[in-house]
Amino acid sequence: MKVKVVTKILEANERLAEENRKRFREAGVFVLNLMGAPGAGKTSLLERTILKLKDRMNIGVIEGDIAGTDDAERINTTGVPVVQINTGGACHLDANMIREVLTEVPLQDLDMLVIENVGNLVCPAEFKVGEDMKAMVLSITEGHDKPLKYPLMFQESAALVLNKIDLLPHIDVDIDKLRKDAISLNHGIKIFEVSCRTGEGLDRWAEWLNGLK
Amino acid sequence: MKVKVVTKILEANERLAEENRKRFREAGVFVLNLMGAPGAGKTSLLERTILKLKDRMNIGVIEGDIAGTDDAERINTTGVPVVQINTGGACHLDANMIREVLTEVPLQDLDMLVIENVGNLVCPAEFKVGEDMKAMVLSITEGHDKPLKYPLMFQESAALVLNKIDLLPHIDVDIDKLRKDAISLNHGIKIFEVSCRTGEGLDRWAEWLNGLK
Question: What is the pTM of this model?
Fold first, then answer.
């Protein structure tokens, strides 16, 4: 009974995601669904990425949060168009939430739209929003046990950005195990080691992203 | 329509949580629902707490994870009884999951049962499991913006354990703002600054917990 309800929700979401996808394709926009746990550094990565790429492409952002407009305000200072979704209590974005705000997004003017999902290592991976690609940010302070404990997001993501690499000397984390377990779940996953604080590793990530649009 | 479904699920959960609570009371067990984002340090805090308190009380643990038995294995080495729940895909524990495993928990022998929830800063706060108290762990590496972005968990928690305080010199985080925003959401919240790596601050937390049972 419970499973049936969940299946129906996912099916209904899938249909709306397909409609969004069609609109994105018609407008020629590449859409990235950026996921990760709270505090992994999704907004920081986005700020840094926008500054690196905004002279080469037109980027737009949809920010998803339970509450507040902090993230949209941060993105706003980079000068790119941004819309904030507040989910109320929902722990993930879904296709309908994206559809509702698309009137506020200048799709025709964009090359890339980044949708920053709610901070959560679980449910965002289950709900498509019409994206071309999913990517995830994991702070290395979260520990090397995360891939095997939260497998779906690692399986769904084309790229894994390991953030806060500058803290490596100060914490107990086995990056090799983390990488190995992520690859065991998803052989094609691209892994980037970065620090949004020091800027380390961000060029490689930005160049890769630039090559996708 | 969607809201109705959610309401029903929460109501049904509430009834089972009440049944669990009754069983806990009859057995004289104090039950703590320990929540927090992935990698905040819930299991590390639990390991440290058990070692500090196990000569003074009988502690049991229920571990909740999407997948894997890593956390239960870690707790097992401390010598206290532990049961692992794998939720499959669900991003939180609910009352029925707890009920299902209570046959494996020696309630009559325990003074305190700690239920470590799935790593998630959102949904675990919505689903009661029959606990006497909720507490949350937040790694300071997650940033000071978390209370206002994930308000419910801060509102529901009697205690906020700020973990990884040893990393303070290496990161950009405003602990005063974090504390202030947490208190603005929940005036009575007890805040503990700890490092599960160095052991700093853990005595105060353990003594407080010991006083509750």
Answer: 0.92
Element at A114 (helix H, strand E): strand A112-116
- pLDDT bin (cut points 50, 70, 90) of residue B2 is very low
B129 phi, psi to nearest 5 deg? -120, 5
Domain boundaries, chain A: 2-210
What is the structure's pLDDT at B213?
Answer: 75
Q: Which residues, at least 6 apart from A165, have a Cβ–Cβ distance to it below 8 Å?
A: A140, A193, A194, A195, A200, A201
Q: What is the pLDDT of residue A10?
A: 81
- Residue A6 pLDDT: 59
Interface of A with B (CB under 8 A): 5, 37-39, 65-68, 70-71, 89, 91, 118-123, 126, 139, 141-143, 145-146, 148-152, 164, 166-167, 170-172, 197
Q: Is A157 within 8 Å of A135 (Cβ atoms)? A: yes
Q: In whole angstroms, what is the distance from residue B11 CA to residue B95 CA?
A: 11
Half-sphere exposure of B15 (CA within 13 A, CB side): 5
CATH architecture for segment(s) B2-210: 3-Layer(aba) Sandwich (3.40)
Q: Can you tell me the ipTM of this complex?
A: 0.88
Do the beta carbons of residue B62 and residue B103 sit within 8 Å?
no
| pLDDT bucket at A1, cuts 50 / 70 / 90 | very low
| Cβ–Cβ below 8 Å for B89 and A152 | yes
